[in-house]
Amino acid sequence: MTTIESINNWFIENFGAITMEQVESWFVYNPDEKLLFNTGLFLGLFLVFYFVYGFLRKTFYLRLTYVILFSLFFYYKSSGIYFLLLLLSSVVDYGLSQIIYKESRDGVKKLYLVISVILNLALLGYFKYMNFLIVTFNDMFNGNFALHNVFLPVGISFYTFQSMSYIIEIYREEIKPTKNYIEYLFFVSFFPQLVAGPIVRAKDFLPQIYQKLNLTKQDVNNALFLIIGGLIKKTVISNYISVNFVDRVFDTPLSYTSFENLMASYGYAIQIYCDFSGYSDMAIGIALLLGFKLPENFRTPYKSTSITDFWRRWHISLSTWLKDFLYISIGGNRSGSFAGYLFPSLFFFGLLLWGISNYTTSIIPLIVAVSSILIFCLSFLLSSKRKQTLVTNFNLFTTMLLGGLWHGAGAQFIVWGALHGLALAVHKIFMEFFPSQKDKKTNFLWRFFSILITFHFVVFCWIFFRARDFETALQVINTIGQLTFEPELWKTIVLGYKNVFGLMLFGYVWHFLPESFTNGMKSVFDKTPLLIKAIILGFVYWIVYATAVAGSQPFIYFQF
Fold this sequence. Notes:
Low-confidence stretches: none
Order of helices and strands: HHHHHHHHHHHHHHHHHHHHHHH
Main location: membrane
Protein name: MBOAT family protein
Organism: Flavobacterium hungaricum
Keywords: Acyltransferase, Cell membrane, Membrane, Transferase, Transmembrane, Transmembrane helix
Pfam family, one: MBOAT
Mean pLDDT: 87
Largest sheet: none
């Protein structure tokens, strides 16, 4: 017969005795042990939090305050004392939003909006781009400015964009401000999506705060299905591929064969998808358990038939934010602007200088630079609506350049954004010459090759995104370019990494499963008794614990 003592003995045997030092570590910030969704500590803390949350479901401000306190604790466990930065930013933005809403003079309202945007971007710029700017200045002008010892708070880009969307929507009179600071802080600090999205729009989230909390059985089913799937994607697939293969190759690409570099590129493509979509799934699932619906963030992006389609499926909350608050703000497809012309011009000028400076070593950089400029120019010169297409393409290119810079301070991220911007421009002119007919069924072969080409272009771009710097990315590409057909060597490599390649295959098969199959799995899961669902969730956490490699790996997008 099972007794409390036998359970205690089993726990001590498997997990060790709990000491006061361990208990203290649960609540004190440790930069090496962030509070992640895929850890046992989060599961334990969330169960306690959720138990109390259930008793507060019929209250309003008490429930909001309770969630805010847990959210701030969650962020403290991720960034330490820098949770105060979140509070400071929220106080400033809330105050400015109130002023903008009450102000009747358009010029004054715009002034306060500009102040808010400058303050937010200055804060983001210091923590994320200060050293990048110093290095760039030193390289260009032979300067000797010392680098700053700057700590990058987790998810600062996400909550900055979210806060900016709130104040911009008030300026545009799309929403009214919250009734008080507590409601606003709840929106900004909501822990499921605080550190890595999805980026939530105020007009979508705020109305849910005022609605009666209503958690249906279907919501619980959806939440558990998303959390279980997210845990498997992140911990079983992404972590294992990363630690055991992808990280090693991208750290020293010249130490590995062309085939290994190629497979690492394919590996990173499924790794970043499983990592980020896995986090988003868990965030959406946890929010559902709290009675809130977050927007879908991924829609099987590698099934995209074009690069335009890809950005409708990948990181949807970011691409929507960039379209609504950046692309449209600089003119969209209507008019040009100074900023819209400035950033592409600076990029192509820099690209040309790079090509010229490397001319004595290799002519390839110059060919790449000239070809890129020529392709971009042809994308609007060949258009029947030349002026409008020029404006649209410049604004699109600016949006993608700044989107790349949002992801990280480095030339490789700028190039990643530029490649996507150039591809979007090329796709637009392609669609003008070969317009698709919405009422006509797409030919299977055409669709297959469209997906294949789009996927490989995205994988190529991921090389720049993953590499630690621009030079490393070029090393990976150059090594892959030397690939030769050596089946025996390939077989040896595959057998040596059979577990990694097996998980890569599993990830890709899962991703490319027909939607009807996924819906069928979801239907079966919905009909499973709640107790069995809880057991499955516990089993998945056990797998997470059993397969943990080198400790818990942080989510890739935490760095953004």
